[in-house]
Design goal:
The protein has helices spanning 6-14, 23-46, 62-65, 77-93, 103-112, 122-133, 140-155, 170-180, 197-207, 213-220, 230-242, 284-287, 299-310, 323-327, 331-343, 413-419, 439-444, 464-493; strands spanning 188-190, 223-227, 250-252, 269-274, 311-322, 345-351, 365-371, 386-391, 425-426, 432-438. Strand 9 (425-426) and strand 10 (432-438) form a beta hairpin. It has a 10-stranded mixed β-sheet with strand order 3-2-1-4-5-7-6-8-10-9, with helices on both faces. 42% of the residues lie in helices and 12% in strands. The longest helix is centred in the last third of the chain and has 30 residues, at 464-493. Helix 2 packs across helix 11 (230-242).
Protein backbone atom coordinates (compact mmCIF):
# COMPACT_ATOMS: atom_id res chain seq x y z
CA UNK A 1 0.00 0.00 0.00
CA UNK A 2 1.03 3.64 -0.36
CA UNK A 3 2.39 4.81 2.98
CA UNK A 4 2.50 8.48 2.04
CA UNK A 5 -1.21 8.99 2.74
CA UNK A 6 -1.58 6.36 5.51
CA UNK A 7 -2.25 8.84 8.32
CA UNK A 8 -4.45 10.99 6.08
CA UNK A 9 -6.66 8.00 5.20
CA UNK A 10 -7.13 7.08 8.85
CA UNK A 11 -7.88 10.67 9.79
CA UNK A 12 -10.52 11.02 7.07
CA UNK A 13 -12.30 7.84 8.18
CA UNK A 14 -12.22 8.62 11.90
CA UNK A 15 -13.37 12.20 11.39
CA UNK A 16 -16.85 10.78 10.67
CA UNK A 17 -17.03 8.78 13.92
CA UNK A 18 -19.02 10.47 16.70
CA UNK A 19 -16.89 8.80 19.38
CA UNK A 20 -13.63 10.49 18.32
CA UNK A 21 -13.26 13.90 19.93
CA UNK A 22 -10.08 15.60 18.73
CA UNK A 23 -6.55 14.65 17.73
CA UNK A 24 -5.54 13.13 21.06
CA UNK A 25 -8.33 10.53 21.00
CA UNK A 26 -7.75 9.80 17.31
CA UNK A 27 -4.06 9.10 17.90
CA UNK A 28 -4.79 6.97 20.97
CA UNK A 29 -7.32 4.93 18.98
CA UNK A 30 -4.78 4.35 16.21
CA UNK A 31 -2.08 3.51 18.76
CA UNK A 32 -3.62 0.39 20.32
CA UNK A 33 -4.60 -1.00 16.92
CA UNK A 34 -1.10 -0.43 15.56
CA UNK A 35 0.34 -2.16 18.62
CA UNK A 36 -1.74 -5.29 18.01
CA UNK A 37 -0.88 -5.27 14.30
CA UNK A 38 2.86 -4.88 14.95
CA UNK A 39 2.76 -7.45 17.77
CA UNK A 40 1.03 -9.96 15.49
CA UNK A 41 3.78 -9.53 12.89
CA UNK A 42 6.44 -10.08 15.58
CA UNK A 43 4.65 -13.23 16.69
CA UNK A 44 5.00 -14.56 13.14
CA UNK A 45 8.76 -14.46 13.72
CA UNK A 46 8.67 -15.73 17.30
CA UNK A 47 6.58 -18.75 16.30
CA UNK A 48 9.60 -20.19 14.53
CA UNK A 49 10.61 -21.17 18.07
CA UNK A 50 8.86 -24.46 18.75
CA UNK A 51 8.11 -23.59 22.38
CA UNK A 52 6.51 -20.19 21.69
CA UNK A 53 2.91 -19.77 22.81
CA UNK A 54 1.08 -16.44 22.54
CA UNK A 55 -0.07 -14.80 25.74
CA UNK A 56 -2.99 -13.30 23.81
CA UNK A 57 -6.14 -15.45 23.84
CA UNK A 58 -6.54 -17.03 20.40
CA UNK A 59 -9.76 -15.19 19.49
CA UNK A 60 -8.12 -11.87 20.40
CA UNK A 61 -5.07 -12.22 18.16
CA UNK A 62 -5.12 -9.68 15.34
CA UNK A 63 -5.11 -12.38 12.67
CA UNK A 64 -8.31 -13.90 14.07
CA UNK A 65 -10.57 -10.85 14.40
CA UNK A 66 -9.08 -7.81 12.66
CA UNK A 67 -7.76 -9.41 9.48
CA UNK A 68 -10.20 -9.49 6.56
CA UNK A 69 -9.43 -12.46 4.29
CA UNK A 70 -12.00 -11.38 1.71
CA UNK A 71 -14.40 -14.24 2.45
CA UNK A 72 -17.11 -11.89 3.67
CA UNK A 73 -16.94 -13.25 7.21
CA UNK A 74 -14.91 -10.41 8.76
CA UNK A 75 -16.50 -8.79 11.81
CA UNK A 76 -18.07 -5.39 11.14
CA UNK A 77 -20.83 -3.09 12.39
CA UNK A 78 -22.39 -3.79 15.78
CA UNK A 79 -20.92 -7.28 15.88
CA UNK A 80 -17.41 -5.84 15.65
CA UNK A 81 -18.13 -3.18 18.27
CA UNK A 82 -19.57 -5.80 20.66
CA UNK A 83 -16.46 -7.94 20.24
CA UNK A 84 -13.97 -5.10 20.77
CA UNK A 85 -15.82 -3.52 23.70
CA UNK A 86 -17.04 -6.65 25.42
CA UNK A 87 -14.42 -9.30 24.70
CA UNK A 88 -11.13 -7.92 23.31
CA UNK A 89 -10.45 -5.20 25.85
CA UNK A 90 -11.80 -7.23 28.75
CA UNK A 91 -9.56 -10.21 28.05
CA UNK A 92 -6.41 -8.21 27.24
CA UNK A 93 -6.75 -6.19 30.44
CA UNK A 94 -7.18 -9.40 32.46
CA UNK A 95 -4.15 -11.27 31.08
CA UNK A 96 -2.31 -12.84 33.99
CA UNK A 97 1.39 -12.13 34.33
CA UNK A 98 3.90 -13.17 36.98
CA UNK A 99 7.47 -12.10 37.75
CA UNK A 100 8.50 -15.00 35.49
CA UNK A 101 6.47 -13.89 32.46
CA UNK A 102 8.86 -12.92 29.62
CA UNK A 103 8.93 -9.18 28.95
CA UNK A 104 7.83 -9.60 25.34
CA UNK A 105 4.63 -11.21 26.61
CA UNK A 106 4.02 -9.07 29.70
CA UNK A 107 4.00 -5.88 27.60
CA UNK A 108 0.59 -6.85 26.19
CA UNK A 109 -1.10 -6.52 29.56
CA UNK A 110 0.74 -3.33 30.54
CA UNK A 111 -0.02 -1.80 27.15
CA UNK A 112 -3.76 -2.35 27.55
CA UNK A 113 -4.16 -1.65 31.26
CA UNK A 114 -5.48 1.87 30.67
CA UNK A 115 -6.07 1.84 26.90
CA UNK A 116 -9.38 3.15 25.55
CA UNK A 117 -11.69 2.31 22.64
CA UNK A 118 -13.48 5.46 21.48
CA UNK A 119 -15.09 4.59 18.13
CA UNK A 120 -18.87 4.14 18.06
CA UNK A 121 -19.42 3.18 14.43
CA UNK A 122 -18.55 -0.45 13.72
CA UNK A 123 -18.48 0.06 9.96
CA UNK A 124 -15.95 2.89 10.24
CA UNK A 125 -13.94 0.81 12.71
CA UNK A 126 -13.77 -1.98 10.11
CA UNK A 127 -12.50 0.53 7.53
CA UNK A 128 -9.75 1.67 9.90
CA UNK A 129 -8.76 -1.91 10.64
CA UNK A 130 -8.51 -2.70 6.94
CA UNK A 131 -6.18 0.26 6.30
CA UNK A 132 -3.90 -0.83 9.14
CA UNK A 133 -4.09 -4.52 8.21
CA UNK A 134 -2.94 -3.69 4.66
CA UNK A 135 0.50 -2.78 6.08
CA UNK A 136 2.97 -5.48 5.09
CA UNK A 137 5.28 -5.31 8.07
CA UNK A 138 6.77 -8.66 7.16
CA UNK A 139 8.49 -6.93 4.24
CA UNK A 140 11.72 -5.27 5.39
CA UNK A 141 11.47 -2.26 3.08
CA UNK A 142 7.83 -1.55 3.94
CA UNK A 143 8.49 -2.03 7.67
CA UNK A 144 11.40 0.42 7.46
CA UNK A 145 9.25 2.90 5.51
CA UNK A 146 6.45 2.55 8.04
CA UNK A 147 8.96 3.33 10.78
CA UNK A 148 9.23 6.78 9.22
CA UNK A 149 5.44 7.09 9.08
CA UNK A 150 5.27 6.14 12.75
CA UNK A 151 7.70 8.96 13.51
CA UNK A 152 5.25 11.29 11.78
CA UNK A 153 2.45 9.96 13.97
CA UNK A 154 4.53 10.63 17.06
CA UNK A 155 5.33 14.11 15.83
CA UNK A 156 1.62 14.85 15.76
CA UNK A 157 1.80 14.53 19.54
CA UNK A 158 3.24 18.04 19.58
CA UNK A 159 -0.08 19.52 18.51
CA UNK A 160 -2.43 17.05 20.24
CA UNK A 161 -3.19 19.12 23.31
CA UNK A 162 -1.41 18.15 26.52
CA UNK A 163 -0.14 14.99 24.86
CA UNK A 164 2.62 17.13 23.34
CA UNK A 165 4.63 16.69 26.51
CA UNK A 166 5.54 13.19 25.37
CA UNK A 167 7.40 14.27 22.24
CA UNK A 168 10.90 15.75 22.21
CA UNK A 169 11.86 16.96 18.70
CA UNK A 170 13.77 14.27 16.84
CA UNK A 171 16.53 16.76 16.02
CA UNK A 172 17.33 17.13 19.72
CA UNK A 173 17.24 13.43 20.58
CA UNK A 174 19.42 12.61 17.56
CA UNK A 175 21.90 15.38 18.41
CA UNK A 176 22.22 14.31 22.04
CA UNK A 177 22.62 10.63 21.12
CA UNK A 178 25.32 11.52 18.60
CA UNK A 179 27.25 13.87 20.88
CA UNK A 180 27.21 11.38 23.79
CA UNK A 181 29.06 8.85 21.55
CA UNK A 182 27.49 5.46 22.37
CA UNK A 183 29.68 2.40 22.74
CA UNK A 184 28.80 -1.25 22.19
CA UNK A 185 28.18 -2.88 25.56
CA UNK A 186 26.91 0.25 27.31
CA UNK A 187 23.48 0.44 28.95
CA UNK A 188 21.39 3.57 28.36
CA UNK A 189 18.35 4.71 30.36
CA UNK A 190 15.53 7.24 30.14
CA UNK A 191 13.40 7.41 33.30
CA UNK A 192 10.57 9.40 31.66
CA UNK A 193 10.85 7.97 28.18
CA UNK A 194 7.53 9.11 26.68
CA UNK A 195 7.20 7.69 23.17
CA UNK A 196 10.80 6.48 23.15
CA UNK A 197 12.51 9.28 21.22
CA UNK A 198 15.80 9.19 23.12
CA UNK A 199 15.84 5.40 23.13
CA UNK A 200 15.34 5.09 19.37
CA UNK A 201 17.91 7.83 18.68
CA UNK A 202 20.38 5.94 20.88
CA UNK A 203 19.66 2.69 19.02
CA UNK A 204 20.09 4.35 15.62
CA UNK A 205 23.39 5.93 16.65
CA UNK A 206 24.67 2.73 18.26
CA UNK A 207 23.68 0.76 15.16
CA UNK A 208 26.43 2.60 13.24
CA UNK A 209 28.96 0.82 15.46
CA UNK A 210 27.57 -2.71 15.03
CA UNK A 211 30.03 -5.01 13.24
CA UNK A 212 29.27 -8.52 14.52
CA UNK A 213 26.31 -10.64 15.59
CA UNK A 214 27.47 -10.24 19.18
CA UNK A 215 27.41 -6.46 18.73
CA UNK A 216 23.81 -6.78 17.54
CA UNK A 217 22.87 -8.76 20.65
CA UNK A 218 24.49 -6.10 22.83
CA UNK A 219 22.57 -3.37 21.02
CA UNK A 220 19.26 -5.14 21.63
CA UNK A 221 20.02 -5.31 25.36
CA UNK A 222 21.34 -1.75 25.67
CA UNK A 223 18.19 0.19 26.56
CA UNK A 224 16.02 0.73 29.64
CA UNK A 225 13.00 2.98 30.00
CA UNK A 226 10.24 3.92 32.41
CA UNK A 227 7.09 5.83 31.50
CA UNK A 228 4.42 6.84 33.98
CA UNK A 229 1.56 7.55 31.57
CA UNK A 230 -0.23 4.76 29.74
CA UNK A 231 -0.68 6.34 26.31
CA UNK A 232 2.96 7.27 25.61
CA UNK A 233 4.04 3.93 27.08
CA UNK A 234 1.92 2.14 24.44
CA UNK A 235 3.46 4.27 21.69
CA UNK A 236 6.96 3.61 23.01
CA UNK A 237 6.59 -0.18 23.09
CA UNK A 238 5.21 -0.20 19.53
CA UNK A 239 8.07 2.08 18.44
CA UNK A 240 10.67 -0.33 19.84
CA UNK A 241 9.01 -3.39 18.29
CA UNK A 242 9.18 -1.59 14.94
CA UNK A 243 12.88 -0.97 15.58
CA UNK A 244 13.48 -4.69 15.96
CA UNK A 245 13.71 -4.80 19.76
CA UNK A 246 11.91 -8.06 20.58
CA UNK A 247 12.24 -7.60 24.34
CA UNK A 248 11.69 -3.90 25.08
CA UNK A 249 12.92 -3.24 28.62
CA UNK A 250 10.45 -0.41 29.06
CA UNK A 251 8.16 -0.37 32.06
CA UNK A 252 4.88 1.37 32.87
CA UNK A 253 5.80 2.85 36.24
CA UNK A 254 6.70 6.01 38.16
CA UNK A 255 10.45 6.56 38.45
CA UNK A 256 10.10 8.82 41.48
CA UNK A 257 8.43 6.43 43.95
CA UNK A 258 11.53 4.56 45.14
CA UNK A 259 13.96 5.85 47.74
CA UNK A 260 17.02 7.02 45.80
CA UNK A 261 19.33 6.04 48.66
CA UNK A 262 18.42 2.38 48.10
CA UNK A 263 19.82 2.20 44.56
CA UNK A 264 22.84 -0.06 44.17
CA UNK A 265 25.43 -0.36 41.41
CA UNK A 266 23.15 -2.89 39.69
CA UNK A 267 20.53 -0.12 39.32
CA UNK A 268 22.91 2.27 37.56
CA UNK A 269 23.56 2.97 33.88
CA UNK A 270 26.47 3.98 31.67
CA UNK A 271 24.48 6.66 29.85
CA UNK A 272 21.33 8.60 30.74
CA UNK A 273 19.57 10.66 28.07
CA UNK A 274 16.27 12.31 28.88
CA UNK A 275 13.96 15.29 28.94
CA UNK A 276 12.37 15.14 32.41
CA UNK A 277 8.80 16.41 32.78
CA UNK A 278 8.81 19.94 34.16
CA UNK A 279 6.21 22.27 35.56
CA UNK A 280 4.60 19.58 37.72
CA UNK A 281 4.34 19.73 41.50
CA UNK A 282 5.03 16.53 43.41
CA UNK A 283 3.29 15.60 46.65
CA UNK A 284 4.98 14.97 49.99
CA UNK A 285 4.89 11.19 49.65
CA UNK A 286 6.93 11.45 46.42
CA UNK A 287 9.38 13.98 47.84
CA UNK A 288 9.97 11.74 50.85
CA UNK A 289 12.02 9.40 48.62
CA UNK A 290 14.73 12.04 48.28
CA UNK A 291 17.33 13.51 50.67
CA UNK A 292 15.77 16.24 52.80
CA UNK A 293 17.83 19.10 51.35
CA UNK A 294 16.80 18.22 47.78
CA UNK A 295 13.06 17.66 48.25
CA UNK A 296 11.88 20.05 45.59
CA UNK A 297 8.25 20.30 44.53
CA UNK A 298 9.39 20.74 40.93
CA UNK A 299 9.33 17.45 39.01
CA UNK A 300 12.38 18.27 36.88
CA UNK A 301 14.47 18.90 40.01
CA UNK A 302 13.61 15.48 41.46
CA UNK A 303 14.53 13.79 38.19
CA UNK A 304 17.92 15.55 38.30
CA UNK A 305 18.49 14.00 41.73
CA UNK A 306 17.35 10.59 40.49
CA UNK A 307 19.76 10.81 37.54
CA UNK A 308 22.70 11.53 39.82
CA UNK A 309 21.90 8.49 41.96
CA UNK A 310 21.51 6.19 38.94
CA UNK A 311 24.49 7.26 36.80
CA UNK A 312 27.27 4.68 36.93
CA UNK A 313 30.83 5.65 37.82
CA UNK A 314 32.45 7.17 34.70
CA UNK A 315 28.98 7.32 33.14
CA UNK A 316 27.73 10.15 30.93
CA UNK A 317 24.47 12.09 30.98
CA UNK A 318 22.67 14.52 28.69
CA UNK A 319 19.57 16.08 30.25
CA UNK A 320 17.18 18.80 29.07
CA UNK A 321 16.15 21.22 31.85
CA UNK A 322 14.03 24.41 31.85
CA UNK A 323 15.53 27.86 32.40
CA UNK A 324 14.14 27.90 35.93
CA UNK A 325 16.65 25.25 36.94
CA UNK A 326 19.55 27.45 35.84
CA UNK A 327 18.65 30.61 37.75
CA UNK A 328 16.61 29.05 40.56
CA UNK A 329 17.75 30.10 44.05
CA UNK A 330 15.53 28.12 46.42
CA UNK A 331 17.27 25.79 48.84
CA UNK A 332 16.59 22.53 47.01
CA UNK A 333 17.80 23.85 43.64
CA UNK A 334 20.98 25.20 45.22
CA UNK A 335 21.58 21.85 46.92
CA UNK A 336 21.05 19.96 43.65
CA UNK A 337 23.34 22.22 41.62
CA UNK A 338 26.00 22.17 44.31
CA UNK A 339 25.88 18.36 44.35
CA UNK A 340 26.39 18.26 40.57
CA UNK A 341 29.48 20.47 40.83
CA UNK A 342 30.92 18.58 43.79
CA UNK A 343 30.25 14.99 42.72
CA UNK A 344 30.05 15.20 38.91
CA UNK A 345 31.90 16.90 36.10
CA UNK A 346 29.39 19.38 34.67
CA UNK A 347 31.41 20.18 31.59
CA UNK A 348 28.86 21.73 29.19
CA UNK A 349 25.56 23.62 29.18
CA UNK A 350 23.87 24.33 25.85
CA UNK A 351 21.30 27.16 25.87
CA UNK A 352 18.42 26.34 23.49
CA UNK A 353 16.04 28.74 21.70
CA UNK A 354 12.68 29.12 23.41
CA UNK A 355 10.54 27.96 20.49
CA UNK A 356 12.03 24.46 20.10
CA UNK A 357 9.04 22.87 21.85
CA UNK A 358 6.48 25.12 20.17
CA UNK A 359 3.50 24.93 20.04
CA UNK A 360 3.39 22.84 23.24
CA UNK A 361 5.34 25.38 25.28
CA UNK A 362 7.51 28.44 24.79
CA UNK A 363 9.51 27.87 27.97
CA UNK A 364 13.23 28.10 27.18
CA UNK A 365 15.26 24.96 27.80
CA UNK A 366 18.88 23.89 28.07
CA UNK A 367 20.96 20.73 27.81
CA UNK A 368 23.22 19.77 30.70
CA UNK A 369 26.07 17.38 29.86
CA UNK A 370 27.90 15.87 32.83
CA UNK A 371 29.99 12.82 33.68
CA UNK A 372 30.25 10.81 36.87
CA UNK A 373 33.97 11.38 37.22
CA UNK A 374 36.36 13.97 38.58
CA UNK A 375 37.84 16.35 36.04
CA UNK A 376 41.60 16.54 36.03
CA UNK A 377 42.67 19.66 37.92
CA UNK A 378 39.35 20.15 39.71
CA UNK A 379 39.73 22.02 43.03
CA UNK A 380 39.62 20.13 46.32
CA UNK A 381 36.09 19.02 47.15
CA UNK A 382 34.79 19.31 43.58
CA UNK A 383 34.57 17.05 40.54
CA UNK A 384 33.91 19.93 38.13
CA UNK A 385 36.87 22.07 37.12
CA UNK A 386 35.11 24.32 34.61
CA UNK A 387 31.84 24.53 32.72
CA UNK A 388 31.47 25.68 29.15
CA UNK A 389 28.31 27.53 28.12
CA UNK A 390 27.21 27.75 24.50
CA UNK A 391 24.17 29.59 23.17
CA UNK A 392 22.53 27.96 20.15
CA UNK A 393 21.02 30.88 18.24
CA UNK A 394 18.13 30.67 15.81
CA UNK A 395 19.33 29.76 12.32
CA UNK A 396 19.50 32.50 9.73
CA UNK A 397 16.11 33.22 8.22
CA UNK A 398 14.18 31.91 11.24
CA UNK A 399 12.44 34.12 13.76
CA UNK A 400 11.23 31.08 15.65
CA UNK A 401 10.58 27.37 15.13
CA UNK A 402 7.05 26.20 14.40
CA UNK A 403 5.08 23.16 13.25
CA UNK A 404 5.72 24.10 9.62
CA UNK A 405 9.33 25.17 10.25
CA UNK A 406 10.58 22.75 12.94
CA UNK A 407 14.08 22.37 14.24
CA UNK A 408 16.20 19.96 12.17
CA UNK A 409 19.42 18.12 12.96
CA UNK A 410 21.30 20.48 10.64
CA UNK A 411 20.45 23.33 13.00
CA UNK A 412 22.68 21.66 15.59
CA UNK A 413 25.74 21.82 13.32
CA UNK A 414 27.12 25.01 14.98
CA UNK A 415 27.24 23.16 18.31
CA UNK A 416 28.95 20.15 16.74
CA UNK A 417 31.58 22.35 15.11
CA UNK A 418 32.23 24.17 18.39
CA UNK A 419 32.16 21.03 20.57
CA UNK A 420 35.61 19.70 19.68
CA UNK A 421 37.26 23.10 19.25
CA UNK A 422 35.90 25.15 22.12
CA UNK A 423 36.50 28.86 22.04
CA UNK A 424 34.93 31.78 23.84
CA UNK A 425 32.72 33.76 21.48
CA UNK A 426 31.78 37.39 22.16
CA UNK A 427 29.30 38.93 19.71
CA UNK A 428 29.88 42.50 18.51
CA UNK A 429 27.18 43.92 20.78
CA UNK A 430 28.99 42.47 23.80
CA UNK A 431 26.69 39.47 24.27
CA UNK A 432 28.49 36.28 25.27
CA UNK A 433 27.61 33.40 22.94
CA UNK A 434 30.15 31.00 24.46
CA UNK A 435 32.27 31.25 27.59
CA UNK A 436 34.03 29.03 30.08
CA UNK A 437 33.43 29.55 33.81
CA UNK A 438 35.46 27.92 36.57
CA UNK A 439 33.69 26.01 39.31
CA UNK A 440 34.79 28.75 41.73
CA UNK A 441 33.01 31.30 39.52
CA UNK A 442 29.81 29.27 39.66
CA UNK A 443 29.98 28.68 43.41
CA UNK A 444 30.65 32.39 44.02
CA UNK A 445 27.48 33.22 42.06
CA UNK A 446 25.42 30.87 44.27
CA UNK A 447 25.22 28.39 41.38
CA UNK A 448 23.54 30.82 39.03
CA UNK A 449 23.89 28.99 35.71
CA UNK A 450 21.88 31.62 33.79
CA UNK A 451 24.87 32.60 31.65
CA UNK A 452 25.44 33.27 27.93
CA UNK A 453 21.84 34.45 27.72
CA UNK A 454 19.90 35.23 24.60
CA UNK A 455 19.77 38.93 23.66
CA UNK A 456 16.63 40.62 24.93
CA UNK A 457 15.36 41.33 21.41
CA UNK A 458 15.31 37.61 20.66
CA UNK A 459 13.30 36.54 23.70
CA UNK A 460 9.99 34.84 23.01
CA UNK A 461 6.76 36.34 24.36
CA UNK A 462 5.35 33.71 26.68
CA UNK A 463 1.66 32.92 27.22
CA UNK A 464 0.28 34.81 30.27
CA UNK A 465 0.46 31.88 32.74
CA UNK A 466 4.05 31.04 31.77
CA UNK A 467 4.99 34.74 31.76
CA UNK A 468 3.74 35.18 35.34
CA UNK A 469 5.49 32.00 36.53
CA UNK A 470 8.70 33.12 34.83
CA UNK A 471 8.39 36.56 36.45
CA UNK A 472 8.06 35.09 39.93
CA UNK A 473 11.11 32.85 39.44
CA UNK A 474 13.23 35.73 38.19
CA UNK A 475 11.97 38.01 40.96
CA UNK A 476 12.98 35.44 43.57
CA UNK A 477 16.40 35.12 41.96
CA UNK A 478 16.85 38.91 41.98
CA UNK A 479 15.68 39.13 45.61
CA UNK A 480 18.25 36.47 46.53
CA UNK A 481 21.01 38.53 44.90
CA UNK A 482 19.85 41.68 46.72
CA UNK A 483 19.82 39.90 50.09
CA UNK A 484 23.26 38.46 49.41
CA UNK A 485 24.70 41.90 48.55
CA UNK A 486 23.11 43.50 51.61
CA UNK A 487 24.59 40.78 53.83
CA UNK A 488 28.05 41.45 52.42
CA UNK A 489 27.64 45.20 53.03
CA UNK A 490 26.54 44.53 56.60
CA UNK A 491 29.61 42.35 57.19
CA UNK A 492 31.92 45.01 55.79
CA UNK A 493 30.30 47.74 57.94
CA UNK A 494 30.03 45.35 60.90
CA UNK A 495 26.32 46.10 61.22
CA UNK A 496 24.14 43.55 62.96
CA UNK A 497 20.50 43.91 61.92
CA UNK A 498 17.99 41.35 63.16
CA UNK A 499 15.13 40.98 60.72
CA UNK A 500 11.97 39.21 61.66
Amino acid sequence: MSLSNFVKRLRNIMRNDAGINGDAQRIEQIAWMLFLKVYDEKENDWEFDDDYHSIIPEECRWRNWAHDDGSGNALTGDELLDFVNGILFDKLKKIEVTPYTPVRKAIVKTTFEDANQYMKDGVLLRQVLNVIDALNLGDYEERHAFGEIYEAILKEMQSAGSSGEFYTPRALTDFMAEIIRPKIGEKMADFACGTGGFITSWLNELDKRVKTANDRDELNKSIFGIEKKQFPYMLCVTNLLLHGIDTPLVFHDNSLIKDVLNYTDDDKFDVILMNPPYGGNEKSDVKSHFPSDMRSSETADLFMVLIMYRLRRNGRAGVIVPDGFLFGTDGSKLAIKTKILKEFNLHTIIRLPGSIFSPYTSIATNILFFNNERAEGAPEGFSTKETWFYRLDMPEGYKHFSKTKPMTLEHCNPVKEWWNNRQEIIIEDGNEKSRCFTVNDLIASDCNFDLCKFPKDDEEILPPAELIADYYKKRDALQHEIDKTLSQIQEILEIDINRE
